[in-house]
Design goal:
Number of helices: 11
Order of helices and strands: HHHHHEHHEHEHEHH
Largest sheet: 2 strands, antiparallel
Strand content: under 5%
Number of strands: 4
Helix content: 55-70%
Radius of gyration: 29 Å
Shape: elongated
Length: 281
């Protein structure tokens, strides 16, 4: 039995148990039935959901208010999770309140149907909230990193840089702020994608990385890569990177490269790029 099917079975068993409880106790003592069910819903469902939510986001909120950069917040997963909680949690609490304050009609089957329906809605909203903490929910929103296997076999360039070398280059770019990411998970995925693109020799369909400098430094970065990468033309390079000028035109890189070579000294960024590539020599 798969994990998703097992979860559905658990929910089904829970609903059947609630139905039996409702039928047996609503006739026996209606006030006790409501009090027990309400306490269970408040402590077991609303309380547990609140605990998981605040355990996750209390520290993130504190770091945000203190103007600290956090690596705990994954916007691709946490934003939809927070949105679902902002809708489902108040809805669950609302129905718990309605359940507690509703009065019995005195007609047994109508009371069973009404109060069982309230409990089903509460259980389903809780199940939705709980689902947002599952791996399957996270996988729905996390961007799948590009790998060598899913880029295809049409190699357009070939690098002599190893995985370790490419990791050093990428980490150097992030160290000096030439590439930046707010989320730690996003940075990890970007590093994997950077390595996969250069190891496969296949540019992506659209640029995947933004360089935080302009064309002259970009042209110099291309030259440093070309020392260890054959057939990496400016046309192929601009399929991988953008920069502060936006979408890079291959001819603008050639012009910038010529101007850069006329300088007696490189820019500060060029000197930092030299430091990065010196680590792989």
């Amino acid at each position: 039995m798969t994990k998703s099917n097992l979860s559905l079975v658990k929910i089904l068993i829970c609903l059947i148990a609630i139905g039996l409880y409702t039928c047996l106790f609503i006739k026996y003592d209606f006030s006790i039935f409501k009090k027990v069910a309400t306490i269970a819903a408040v402590l077991g469902l609303a309380g547990y959901s609140s605990y998981k939510f605040f355990r996750r986001y209390a520290m993130i909120y504190a770091e945000y208010m203190a103007n600290k950069k956090t690596v705990l917040f994954d916007k691709k997963v946490d934003k939809p999770r927070i949105f679902i909680h902002s809708v489902a949690w108040p809805l669950m609490v609302l129905f718990i309140g309605v359940f507690y304050y509703a009065n019995a009609s005195g007609i047994f089957w109508m009371d069973v149907l009404l109060f069982y329906s309230f409990q089903v809605i509460i259980i389903l909203t809780f199940s939705l909230l709980n689902f947002t903490w599952s791996t399957s929910f996270e996988n729905r929103y996390k961007q799948k990193p590009v790998t060598e296997n899913n880029l295809g076999n049409d190699r357009e360039f070939k690098t002599a840089l190893s995985v370790v070398d490419l990791t050093t280059v990428f980490d150097g770019l992030t160290k000096y702020g030439f590439i930046s990411y707010e989320d730690h998970d996003e940075l990890i995925n970007a590093r994997k994608e950077f390595i996969a693109i250069f190891r496969s020799g296949v540019p992506p369909n659209q640029p995947r990385f933004k360089l935080e400098f302009k064309n002259p430094d970009t042209a110099y970065f291309l030259e440093k890569l070309q020392l260890n990468t054959s057939s990496l033309t400016s046309v192929r390079f601009v399929k991988i990177f953008t920069n502060l000028n936006g979408i890079i035109k291959p001819e603008s890189l050639s012009s910038s490269s010529s101007q850069a070579k006329k300088r007696s000294h490189g820019s500060r960024n060029m000197l930092k790029l030299d430091l990065i590539f010196e680590q792989i020599d």
